[in-house]
Amino acid sequence: MTGVRMGLAGKMILANLIVILLAILLSIAIHTSMLRDHVYAQKERELIAGAEQIDGVATQYLNGQIDRETMDYVLSSLDRVLDARIRIVDLEGHILRGSRGESQMERERSFVPRESIQHLRDGEAVTYERTHPRFDESMLSVAVPLRQDSTIAAPTEVTSALLLHAPVTGIQQTAARLQQFGLISGAAALLLAAALGYIFFRRISHPMTTMGEAALQMAEGNLQKRVPAGRGDEVGQLGSALNHMAASLSRTIESLEYEKFKFISTVMSMNEGFMALDPGGQVFLVNPAAADLLSIEDVGELPDSVHHRSLQIPAEISDLIEAALDTGEGQEDTLAFYGDTTCEVQVTPNEQRGDGYRGCVVLIHDISESHRLEQMRRQFLADASHELRTPLAVITGFLEALYDGTVPREDVDHYISLLRAEGSRLNRLVDDMLDLEKYDAGEIHLSPRPFCLEELLERVTDVLAPAAEKRKVELVIEVEPDLPG
User: Fold this and answer.
1) Rounded to an integer, what distance in angstroms lies between the CA atom of residue 232 and that of residue 236?
2) Under a CB-based contact definition with an 8 Å cutoff, are residues 164 and 100 in contact?
3) Which of 312, 270, 40 lies closest to 172, judged by CA?
4) Contact (Cβ atoms closer than 8 angstroms) between residue 162 and residue 82
5) For the purposes of burial, counting CB atoms within 10 Å of the CB of 350, is it exposed (0-12), middle (13-18) or buried (19 or more)?
6) Strands 282-286, 331-337: parallel, antiparallel or unpaired by DSSP?
7) How many CB atoms lie within 10 A of CB 112?
8) Nearest-angstrom CA–CA distance, 36 and 30
9) Is the pLDDT at 205 greater than 60, yes or no?
10) φ and ψ at 187, to 5 degrees?
11) Given strand 126-132, what is the order of strands in its sheet?
């Protein structure tokens, strides 16, 4: 984290220093150039003005109107005023007169560029700068054409020039000193800018580093972490936004955890078995009902997910799970396993995510008791039908016998009493069926009491006697003597 912080601060400081350095160098170059041009222009104007002051005197000298002493005095006086060497030269470069003496000047050639000669012939003043071979220093030179008086036979023409050489070493030294001063000032400004930039960026990078560390702690789950956000600038706004995000995430996670708690509590309290699996078929949640039905030892959220086939659950359920995960379609079946256990199994895949599904949930409903009750109901209906058919058959047989006259007159009353008994028996059967319905609903309770088995068997024998006689069946009652009566 420190390397990142220092790297960012260093890059920002370096970028600003480069900008400042370029600005300083550009400013020094511009001001030095402007000062040099200004001084050169001013010196050029001075030389031209000085040349204009004495060009008339020089013309008179060339025309022989004044003597050498007067010319030398004028040249030497202007030399001192302008701090410039003054020469009167012809267009071939021979020195005709100079401000620093005559004896040697007549034998020297003044340095005049060839390209400037034509401008002088055309009557134009020329200014140039170059290193003079005699003085071995850079000179600013001004050449002004001189015209001798003309006659009708010989018109006015330029035959010579007034040449002024002013050393520019001082100007260059001044410019160099200015550049040196600018560089020193720039270095001081760079150091000051570096110090201020370091302080400034430290004020920015420190809270940003704190925010980065707080963000890492938040990512690790510590959403109670907060950062100082008292500043009113963008950094303070960023800190406020980070604190607001942490508070919002904390509330959201608390809400999700509460919803998860409610979900887990609901699932764990369900009477139906419930299992949750991820897309890989790993079981991560089992409620107690499913654990009891499938003989699974671990209950609740499994710390280490286990593949459903590793739990040794019935293969039929594993097949349904894999079919749901592969096809994305719900699977449902009624399965019997572990002896007399019968269950309805529903496997529902979760919502689609990309090319796969987010796992599935398995709901197992134990219908063993309802299945057993259904079997009992069917058996009861079969028994009830049989019980109802018997007295109806007896009543029908008696009525047919009475109707046909096959019953002796002295036995008619007996048969009528039997018909009455069978009718009562039908009522009792209907009452018993209604009582059983009430018993299943929990509305009545049985009260067992002793009865005489022999009397019950005699009544049954009387009821079945007509049918037995038709089929030539003899009914015999045998009762143990020691049975309670």
Assistant:
1) 5
2) no
3) 40
4) no
5) middle
6) unpaired
7) 21
8) 10
9) yes
10) -65, -40
11) 95-98, 85-90, 158-167, 137-147, 126-132
Residue 301's alpha-carbon distances to 264, 266, 362, in angstroms, are: 9, 13, 15
Cβ within 8 Å of residue 350, ≥6 positions away: 357, 358, 359, 360, 361
Whole-prediction pTM: 0.43
Say which amino acid occupies 391.
P
Distance of CA 97 to the CA centre of its chain: 89
57 neighbors 233 (Cβ within 8 angstroms)? no
Buried b (16+ CB within 10 A) or exposed e, 437-456: eeeeeeeeeeeeeeeeeeee
Residue in 148, 86, 76, 89 with CA at minimum distance from that of residue 116: 89
Which tokens sit at 177? Answer: 């000193």
Give the number of other Cβ atoms within 10 Å of residue 471's Cβ: 7
**In the predicted structure, residue 108 carries a pLDDT above the cut 50:** no
Q: Dihedral (C-alpha) 186, 190, 192, 198: value to the nearest 10 degrees?
A: 170
Asked whether the beta carbons of 169 and 86 are under 8 A apart, the reply is no
> How many CB atoms are closer than 10 A to CB 415?
17
Q: In the chain, what percentage of residues exceed pLDDT 90?
A: 0
Single-letter amino acid code for the residue at 66: I
User: What's the whole-number average pLDDT of the chain?
Assistant: 76
Rounded Cα gap, residues 81 and 74, in angstroms: 11
Burial status of residue 242 (CB atoms within 10 A of its CB: 0-12, 13-18, 19 or more) = buried
* Side chain identity, residue 429: L
Above pLDDT 70, what percent of the chain? 84
Write the pLDDT tens digit of every residue in 355-378.
Answer: 555 788 898 888 777 777 777 777
Measuring CA to CA, which residue among 110, 70, 64 is closest to residue 90? 110
Q: Please answer whether residues 198 and 13 qualify as being in contact, where contact means their C-beta atoms are separated by less than 8 angstroms.
A: yes
- Closest to 121 measured CA to CA, from 130, 129, 112: 112
Using the CB atoms, write b or e for 249-283: b if 16+ within 10 Å: eeeeeeeeeeeeeeeeeebbebebbbbbbbeebbb
